[in-house]
């Protein structure tokens, strides 16, 4: 039976000091729906005996460790002490956030010229962060062509996500992810093409029984949850590009250098959002019900680039991209919910993929 044992450390004068009496750790990350704004990773940590912690200040560095895996560059953004009748009853709550949250609190003055990868790099540099590449160091920052839009005191995260959203074929936020707290850039050609995780209601019949994970709740919903029959993309300095004629509209902006680039992005979004099938929209499980060898998404750092999974229910297999996740963990129990964009609106054709490379079972992407 799997189990999480979290340890929390705070940095004091360049020395990491363990915070004892931690009673619970919760974690949230990403989106619940494709049409929602992407939310940076946030931890909420609860514990007892605040008198043993000492002073906690906004901006203090905190590290969360679980079986040797450690978060990096998380900072305190809130801290509250709740006093009981006796000091032994006092409790505390701490919120810590990652670089993306810090980016949301920054203002940037830069330009977005070049392409979507270079624009992301410029915005991060202006905010005081570095953006590194995934894969070969020789590969350049690349992506869709971007206009030279001058940003003055723009919100760092809004600018960053708009640049990432302008990426190749308009795949939302597709090239940017977190790796151990650091911002990383991945080209489309490096996207994972096969499921990293296999969830099933019958481990004995799984493709990989040793590593398959089980679930106890899966929620299906009409794609009205992620539905739009009209998409409008407005490029900086260009004309709004519209695909579809319905009444349920999704609108977004881009730094595309051409109207054609914005139209390509609108077509891609329309392909993602215009379906109306019933598909899995969330999946929940407890850590304790997993076998010792089951492979599940990473809850205590980030998903990195491993965000594609399969779900088998009553003999039918669905494929989905993990948009976001919630976790609540205590010393005795851990509950995890994954929010999904299922294959009906995200399953684009990928060469050499056993799941996305099957003709007549995928949409032809850009």
What oligomeric arrangement do these chains adopt? single chain
Question: How large, in whole angstroms, is the Cα Rg?
Answer: 22 Å
- How many alpha or pi helices? 4
Termini, distance in Å? 43 Å
The profile of the biggest β sheet is: 15 strands, mixed
Number of strands: 25
Q: Output the CATH topology of the largest domain.
A: Elongation Factor Tu (Ef-tu), domain 3
Beta-strand residue fraction: 35-45%
Overall mean confidence score, pLDDT: 77
Number of domains: 4
Low-confidence segments, ≥5 residues, pLDDT <50?
168-175, 187-191, 344-366
Order of helices and strands: EEEEEEEEHEEHEEEHEEEEEEEEHEEEE
Can you put this structure into words, describing what you see?
The protein is mostly beta strands. It folds into 4 domains: 6-98; 103-190; 197-223 and 277-345, Elongation Factor Tu (Ef-tu), domain 3; 229-273, no CATH class. It has 4 helices and 25 strands. It has helices at 99-104, 116-127, 156-165, 259-273; strands at 6-12, 15-19, 22-30, 39-48, 61-66, 69-70, 74-82, 91-97, 107-111, 114-115, 131-133, 145-146, 150-155, 176-179, 182-185, 197-200, 213-214, 217-222, 230-235, 241-243, 249-254, 278-286, 308-313, 316-329, 334-342. Helix 2 (116-127) runs antiparallel to helix 3 (156-165). The radius of gyration is 22 Å and the shape is globular.
Please give a handful of descriptors for the protein shown.
single chain; 366 residues; mainly beta; Elongation Factor Tu (Ef-tu), domain 3; 4 domains; 15-stranded mixed beta sheet; 3-stranded mixed beta sheet; 4 helices; 25 strands; 12% helix; 40% strand; disordered C terminus
